[in-house]
Amino acid sequence: xxxxxxxxxxxxxxxxxxxxxxxxxxxxxxxxxxxxxxxxxxxxxxxxxxxxxxxxxxxxxxxxxxxxxxxxxxxxxxxxxxxxxxxxxxxxxxxxxxxxxxxxxxxxxxxxxxxxxxxxxxxxxxxxxxxxxxxxxxxxxxxxxxxxxxxxxxxxxxxxxxxxxxxxxxxxxxxxxxxxxxxxxxxxxxxxxxxxxxxxxxxxxxxxxxxxxxxxxxxxxxxxxxxxxxxxxxxxxxxxxxxxxxxxxxxxxxxxxxxxxxxxxxxxxxxxxxxxxxxxxxxxxxxxxxxxxxxxxxxxxxxxxxxxxxxxxxxxxxxxxxxxxxxxxxxxxxxxxxxxxxxxxxxxxxxxxxxxxxxxxxxxxxxxxxxxxxxxxxxxxxxxxxxxxxxxxxxxxxxxxxxxxxxxxxxxxxxxxxxxxxxxxxxxxxxxxxxxxxxxxxxxxxxxxxxxxxxxxxxxxxxxxxxxxxxxxxxxxxxxxxxxxxxxxxxxxxxxxxxxxxxxxxxxxxxx
Amino acid sequence: xxxxxxxxxxxxxxxxxxxxxxxxxxxxxxxxxxxxxxxxxxxxxxxxxxxxxxxxxxxxxxxxxxxxxxxxxxxxxxxxxxxxxxxxxxxxxxxxxxxxxxxxxxxxxxxxxxxxxxxxxxxxxxxxxxxxxxxxxxxxxxxxxxxxxxxxxxxxxxxxxxxxxxxxxxxxxxxxxxxxxxxxxxxxxxxxxxxxxxxxxxxxxxxxxxxxxxxxxxxxxxxxxxxxxxxxxxxxxxxxxxxxxxxxxxxxxxxxxxxxxxxxxxxxxxxxxxxxxxxxxxxxxxxxxxxxxxxxxxxxxxxxxxxxxxxxxxxxxxxxxxxxxxxxxxxxxxxxxxxxxxxxxxxxxxxxxxxxxxx
Lengths: 512, 359
Prior knowledge:
The structure holds 2 protein chains of 2 kinds. Chain A is α/β, with parallel strands linked by helices. Chain A is 34% helix and 24% strand.
């Protein structure tokens, strides 16, 4: 074991009503890649925020290379050589790479020198990046590189990474891992937070596992199985979604050669997208964020209108219909962004149940609302999907991300959809909840609903989908059966290599 | 160090407490202001808040209070529906003027016809006038994406010019010896909006109360009200829920214009009596304060309307009896909104006092 870089000793942090971290202790060695594992709400974020100086611990101490370490703010943490790459990037779309990096620095050097250093660092670590490109045009993987290079320019001793691979293609993950291994070999310690256990097994030297704010175990990931780690995280046995493959029915939803302009400036327009999903089928749509996922969902939900025949629900043209009319016909959707899109943050769960449930659940008559029926519906969602909340009158934003996600998916599933489209159904959701959401989707397919699952989580798509299609720069590849599909092939599909010769046979079989 | 921390949930208690705190803070700092002007702060505050209601001459002030509160409440209720959805009609003053002009024009055209339907026709004309004036910014916004704040505000000045030309031209009293201003509708029984003039009650008072009930039911029991609140909280979620933003813009601007137009009509057919160059007295702008003071809640607006009317009447008394300048009274009213918005922060944030750490 190498020398200890950061020693964390019984850190405790309580928020009103919840203890986020209780007596957490562990050590990170110099140059070590240390995994922090835990379900949502286990206290991982609070812990790294304390290390990064964003949150002050109630009690407990930290020691950095033998010296007491208590950063009052992130600037001090950065000064001591701690850097962090957040899960959600803090970049300005309209500025270029170098400008974005300069904004995060205390004393930015002149732009020309900075650009030169960015190029140097990016080449040294195998992270190709042009300092003069506008961030709005970059892919998620490239944006992450901007954040990483911003950190590397500070020459950090400890680099904290919060779920870094959730937005990357398999090939990009490989590049990132090579970079991280190089950094580690040079003596930079890395604190790596992730849900993806296989990744942790390939990358990390040690792992600390948190549950409900407490350290519940530690392991050497290489010597443990993913299942063992998952069970330590949830503190019980893990249910893996199961399903029997049933015969597929009639075509439930069809999109034919649809092109749609994105409503937002930095969005991706859809180009000539065609989809056919049959009753009982789960179609997985993979791809890196920002390649048209939001637009695809919008086209299906009715937020983006198209020509009537471009979208057909059981043969009926619905392209010109708005969200309410489509819901009435049985086409339901759950967008990715929970707060502000799928749910209204300041409204209660009852009101949020009304948001999409009004038509199919008969919560409205002659324009007048039935609050008692709506409350019953909200209670049903909370019960069926194990949403942890004090009650239906709590504001949506008071729920944790995972709980709100369960509510949002549950709200649609309980409305007995004919076709359900979900975007990132388990984003930021803990393993147990993710498994139950996936199971709910599969059960729904079993009962004859057609499901389109848009996700960046390839493992998830491989687990639940019958067929897989890749969305790149607004184009959708022809679907291929997930049986026998390898990670390499998916990577090729995501890379935008459409019309590959090998793809034809399978695709035709699927569509026949 | 003072730190603001976002609450997990908006605090119910604070949302009720902030208006009260705002009033108290206004009294305190307003008192300071009056003290600097050389008046006893206690006397000034008492004159403004107490005298109109309970002094020896309150029999005279109370009806005035009713007269002032009615249009404020009526207009503010309409505005609040748009404000809740994030649609900012700043031009209620213009819609108020147009309502008065259109309503009075119908009455004056029918003069001296004595029939039951004269006043209802005027009401319809006033409502339509205000509504159509408000639909100009609505349609421009929906069609061309113009900013409704600017357009509705600019139309106030157009409306004022129109008012002047009407008072001097087509609507001028033919028996008025060439003086500007229309015939006095007070002397035309079929066209008057008074119900109990001695108590300060006219049809506008009734309309204001109905508007409060209407808005309350709309917001708490009706899908349209739900969509309005949803749009204000999360516009993207509203689209997802199936709200058509254009239709909502037209609805809320049209409705607030309609209410403002009605207020103008009831005013011209009652307390004001006639169309004059300076007929409008800023109700349309003050109603914006009333709407926010009342937390965009219909019941709150009812209370806020009376409070603001009180500061108006009390302010006038203070001007007359204590010789306070009119500007001081306006500053006093401005403070009220300022403090309300400032304290509003506490509904969504809590203040944390932290000792500065040694770095």
